[in-house]
Amino acid sequence: MIKLALISVSNKEGVIDFAKGLNGFGVKILSTGGTAKSLRDAGIPVTDVSEHTGFPEMLDGRVKTLHPKIHGGLLGKRDNPEHVKKMQEHNIEPIDMVVVNLYPFEATISKPDCTFEDAIENIDIGGPTMLRSAAKNFKDVAVVVDPLDYKKLLAEMKKKNGGLSEDTKFELAKKVFLHTARYDSVISNYLERSDKETVRFPGILTLQFEKVQNLRYGENPHQQGAFYRELNTKEPSVSKSKQLQGKEMSFNNFLDSNSALELIKEFDEPAVVIVKHNNPCGVAVGESLVDAYVRARDTDPVSAFGGVIAFNRMVDVEAAKEIISTFVEVVIAPEFDEEALAEFKKKKDIRLLDIGPTVKGEPEGMDMKKIVGGLILQDRDLGRIDDIRKLKIVTKREPKEKEWNALSFAWKVCKHVKSNAIVITNERHTLGIGIGQTSRVDSVKIAIMKAKKPALKGSVLASDAFFPFSDGIITAVKAGVKAVIQPGGSIRDDEVIAAADKHKIAMVFTGMRHFRH
Fold first, then answer.
1. DSSP code of residue 182
2. Predicted confidence band at 351 (pLDDT cuts at 50, 70, 90)?
3. CB–CB of 367/200 below 8 Å?
4. Which DSSP letter does residue 63 get?
5. Which CB contacts under 8 angstroms, 24+ apart, belong to 52-60?
6. Which residue in 167, 320, 384, 422 could disulfide with 443, CB within 3.0 to 4.6 Å?
7. Number of continuous H segments (helices) and E segments (strands) in the chain
């Protein structure tokens, strides 16, 4: 039976109705500050915690529930005669229910004008302490942290004459420790970021993700999977997107969509990216989205079938009509106009992800890769070349104007291709992409094989890392490549440059590598 409940909430949603329901079961209610006032104003009998403990709230409210009469009432085991004796000896009344949610620390630090002092004052001390005390003693105490539980708890109390089952109280206790763990993690992460002396990679790494949904399965049907969203991020991302139509996202859909979106962020002009198996298979810029899409798709139509497409502009009806002419898994964009949405309804299985007003945003967070028994953490690869014409020209021939533009385009794409990566392009779209081979010359051969041969004449090539031998350059030249962009840094750079000079092509070194494993 629930006879005495302590209610002290920051989020007062639904608490009046819940307290009325408890009062209807004859439950006596203890409360503090603003919560007590709200309950009294609603006509609900309330006893102040300070009256219950005989000790006043003090230190600007920092001390109000930190008292033996509160924590003795929560932690005392009802089936332990020694506990019961001590509680009676010290006039400690058992508290059967705690209804608490915490100071809004997360909401406070999200405000642009939040000061460090504001943040510190919104660190709840009494609330987590009561929650943990009650949850530890869940067999005797029901602890409620989620307003969404109010109605079902009242319904159960009605069935059980004012009581709750031990199973219910155990489920409530589990919620509490998840809640307090998240709360403490948000605080520790905030303090880490606020400390100017904090090292980039802390000794203990605390991560916070909330479960969004179960997946039908993981990468393969015999693997289970789920999607979790990182807390408090503002950067446009697939994880924050709104799905407008289509089947549920799969494990692989999330990976491919993320890769497509991160590549499309490289471009300011209207652009389209098509990704298959977590690699771009077609990228293009154009005056219109439909033109860019067709050019991207035509890089490798076979691979584009069943692909994931990202746009950096609102998708219009012309682009939508072209997209639904073939099989597509996911379409990602800042927006979709009404006519486009009507067109997509003809293919209801296509997943549409609305990223929001723009794909651009301030980059956040780190790059993490899980290995068995550990985690590898690094900066995200946000390296860019602001002015490609300032790169080091290492050959006798300099790139021509169109080649400079094409080299810039190719380098942006190459950064997002699995190593060893080779990308062959013109100014406007990809021609051939060589992905993930264990030798660089094989990646060159695959890029050439994927391309339409006549289109390679006068093309440019980007390599994510240096050429260890001249064979890759010679192979590219034979196919029609006229300019190359690569990091440089091989012990055989002189040999590679000599091969480029011999065949009268231009080559520039970036000094920046873009391995993607």
1. H
2. very high
3. no
4. B
5. 52/93, 57/32, 57/33
6. 422
7. 19, 21
Question: Is the Cα dihedral 226, 168, 84, 36 positive or negative?
Answer: positive
Residue 258: cis peptide before it, omega within 30 degrees of 0: no
Whole-angstrom Cα distance, residue 122 to residue 61?
A: 11
Helix (H, G, I), strand (E, B) or coil at 62: coil
**Residue 250: DSSP 8-state:** P
pLDDT digits (tens, 9 = 90+) for 270-317: 999 999 999 999 999 999 999 999 999 999 999 999 999 999 999 999
**Which two three-digit tokens encode residue 178?**
């998840």
CA–CA dist 304, 294 (Å, integer): 11
Task: Return the residue matching tokens 């400390």.
Answer: 195
Backbone angles phi, psi at 175, to 5 degrees: -60, -40
Distances (CA, A) of 247 to 179, 212, 271, 290, 330: 31, 16, 25, 24, 10
State the catalytic residues. Answer: 136, 277
CB burial readout 77-95, b (16+ within 10 A) else e:
eeeeeebeeebeeeebbbb
Enter the tokens of residue 113.
Answer: 């004008």
- pLDDT average, residue stretch 461-478: 96
Buried b (16+ CB within 10 A) or exposed e, 348-381: eebbbbbbeeebebeeeeeeeeeeeeeeeeeeee
| pLDDT tens-digit readout, 37-61 | 889 998 898 888 887 877 777 676 6
Q: Please spell the DSSP secondary structure of 397-445, one letter per residue.
A: SPPPHHHHHHHHHHHHHHTTSPSS-EEEE-SSBEEEEE-S-SSHHHHHH
Give yes or no for a contact between 299 and 282, defined as CB atoms under 8 angstroms apart.
yes
**DSSP labels, 190-227:** HHHHH-TT--SS-SS----EEEEEEES-SSSTTS-EEE
Q: Which structure tokens are listed for 124?
A: 């709840």
Report residue 51 as tokens: 């009256």
Domains of the chain by start residue, with CATH: 4-194 (3.40.50.1380), 236-354 (3.40.140.20), 389-509 (3.40.140.20)
H or E element at residue 289: helix 289-299
Which tokens is 267 given? 């471009």
> How far lies 362's CA from each of 220, 242, 272, 409, in Å?
34, 20, 21, 22
